């Protein structure tokens, strides 16, 4: 085979970044491979409006993805459409037509990656998805190859750049959530409908994929407790700092004696932990192995070029395998459930907690709250209150000694009925030193 031919479907952010890299870096890519990797066809909904880099040479342009997945000359189909409808059809049809597939689609891979892999194995084709999690960080290769010999005990991540941008901006400038969100939307860091990012849904798909790779279990998004960042305000950073902590949307998969606890939620983490220094739209993944201990990976979580690098690198690996006749037909979702990593409800985890209240000031508030905690055998650790003039909307914080999440939830539910509260208490776990 003289060259390996590629068809790209989806010419938006990632598609244009991928084409730009293949055009600008094509010579070096071919030298590294020892053969030619050539884009022969491209497709998007409005292909006529797209600028295709001249350096790619003559390219078939179409608006019909079916033309690409059935094209006899194409060896690899790149799916960069996103979502789970058309994208699933593209990937399934490509595999059925014995094409290998490279995708950046976290949603599709989190929801049906295992089934797609089974189909790809049966069809003796390859499926690559490095770009689907943490765009510019080659974390799949790390988990599948680099540290696959270790027994992973925990994986922590900051996997959503939009939430991290919002939280770190709020932290730096003390600006309210809504203002920072509007600014992020103006700058193109957050979408018009930001819920996927700020409600933790995007991060949940990514954690589902990474924990499946790390623990060799079948993990689906529904196994992951998910809570977004809408309720976090500058006041929470003020209190968190007083406690020597900061707040991040933390993706966590932890092995405990009872099973695997999976969550995406805002949590207090110590300011001395390396994850606390992950600022703006950057992503990071921290893996703890039983044998090799800690490793840390950091980089751009998204963007046309960093994500494009992941797509092009996948293309190079798959192209090598096609050329040398050794497709890597082992599903990364290689889960015959190992049992020890069985997901368990987050309600069973034991943690210290941060409870933030907004109250109409009056006598007896602390004793009413302390009474509820005592009745649930929860030990109060400290009460913090920064000076405030506004007695009609007074924020303060109670921290709790380690206790089960179940007990905290019950206490919060009971507290929510108290008439001096302006809103239900905000409960965040305080992570022990990571
Ligand atoms: N953006 C990032 O930084 C990033 C990072 C990591 C992973 N990802 C993932 O990468 C994938 C693509 O994201 P993106 O940001 O590049 O999305 P995008 O900018 O919205 O691009 C999507 C592309 O798909 C095309 N498309 C939509 N429906 C189509 C159809 N029926 N047939 C053919 N083409 C169709 C669109 O065509 P038109 O442009 O012609 O309308 C567009 O070019 C998603 O799975 C996303 O989760 C993105």
Protein architecture, described:
The protein has 434 residues and is α/β, with parallel strands linked by helices. It folds into 3 domains: 3-136 and 304-324, Rossmann fold, CATH 3.40.50.720; 139-300, Dihydrodipicolinate Reductase, domain 2; 349-430, ACT domain (Alpha-Beta Plaits, 2-Layer Sandwich). The chain is 36% helix and 25% strand. The protein is built from 14 helices and 17 strands. Strands 7, 8, 9, 10, 11, 12 and 13 form a 7-stranded mixed sheet that branches. A 6-stranded parallel sheet has the order 3-2-1-4-5-6, sandwiched between helices. The longest helix is centred in the last third of the chain and has 21 residues, at 304-324. The chain is elongated, with a radius of gyration of 24 Å. The mean pLDDT is 94. Bound molecules: NADP nicotinamide-adenine-dinucleotide phosphate. NADP nicotinamide-adenine-dinucleotide phosphate binds next to helix 1.
Q: What is the radius of gyration?
A: 24 Å
Total tally of structural domains: 3
Low-confidence stretches: none
Our estimate of the beta-strand percent is 15-25%
CATH architecture classification name of the largest domain = 2-Layer Sandwich
Q: Could you tell me the number of beta strands?
A: 17
The CATH topology annotation of the largest domain reads as Dihydrodipicolinate Reductase, domain 2
Ligands in the model, by name, code or SMILES, are: NADP nicotinamide-adenine-dinucleotide phosphate
Mean pLDDT: 94
Distance between the first and last residues' Cα: 50 Å
Shape: elongated
Give me the secondary-structure category.
Answer: alpha/beta
Give the biggest sheet: 7 strands, mixed
Number of helices: 14
Helix content: 25-40%
The first-level CATH class name of the largest domain: Alpha Beta
């Amino acid at each position: 085979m003289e060259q390996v031919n590629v068809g790209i479907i989806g010419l938006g952010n990632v598609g244009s970044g991928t084409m730009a890299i293949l055009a600008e870096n094509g010579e070096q890519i071919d030298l590294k491979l020892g053969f030619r990797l050539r884009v022969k066809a491209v497709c998007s909904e409005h292909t006529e409006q797209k600028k295709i880099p001249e350096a790619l040479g003559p390219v078939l342009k179409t608006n019909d993805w079916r033309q690409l997945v059935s094209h006899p000359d194409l060896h690899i189909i790149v799916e960069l459409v996103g979502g789970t409808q058309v994208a699933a059809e593209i990937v399934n049809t490509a595999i059925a037509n014995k094409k290998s597939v490279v995708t950046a689609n976290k949603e599709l891979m989190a929801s049906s990656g295992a089934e797609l892999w089974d189909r790809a194995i049966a069809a003796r084709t390859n499926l690559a998805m490095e770009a689907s999690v943490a765009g510019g960080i080659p974390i799949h290769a790390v988990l599948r190859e680099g540290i696959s010999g270790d027994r992973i005990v925990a994986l922590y991540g900051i996997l959503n750049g939009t939430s991290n941008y919002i939280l770190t901006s709020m932290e730096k400038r003390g600006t309210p959530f809504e203002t920072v969100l509007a600014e992020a939307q103006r700058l193109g860091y957050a979408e018009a409908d930001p819920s996927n990012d700020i409600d933790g849904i995007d991060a949940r798909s990514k954690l589902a994929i990474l924990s499946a790779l790390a623990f060799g279990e079948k993990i689906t998004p529904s196994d992951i407790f998910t809570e977004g960042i809408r309720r976090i305000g500058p006041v929470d950073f003020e209190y968190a700092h007083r406690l020597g902590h900061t707040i991040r949307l933390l993706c966590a998969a932890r092995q405990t004696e009872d099973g695997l606890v999976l969550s995406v939620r805002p949590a207090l983490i110590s300011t001395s932990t390396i994850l606390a220094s992950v600022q703006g739209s950057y992503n990071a993944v921290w893996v703890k192995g039983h044998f090799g201990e800690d490793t840390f990976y950091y980089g751009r979580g998204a963007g046309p070029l960093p994500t494009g690098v992941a797509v092009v690198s996948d293309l190079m690996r798959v192209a090598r395998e096609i050329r040398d006749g050794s497709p890597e037909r082992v599903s990364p979702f290689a889960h015959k459930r190992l049992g020890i990593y069985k997901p368990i409800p987050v309600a069973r985890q034991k943690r210290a907690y941060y409870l933030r209240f907004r109250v109409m000031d009056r006598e007896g508030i602390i004793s009413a709250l302390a009474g509820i905690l005592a009745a649930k055998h929860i030990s109060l650790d400290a009460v913090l209150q920064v000076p405030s003039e506004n007695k009609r909307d007074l924020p303060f914080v109670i921290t709790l000694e380690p206790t089960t999440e179940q007990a905290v939830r019950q206490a919060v539910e009971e507290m929510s009925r108290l008439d001096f509260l302006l809103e239900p208490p905000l409960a965040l776990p305080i992570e022990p030193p990571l």
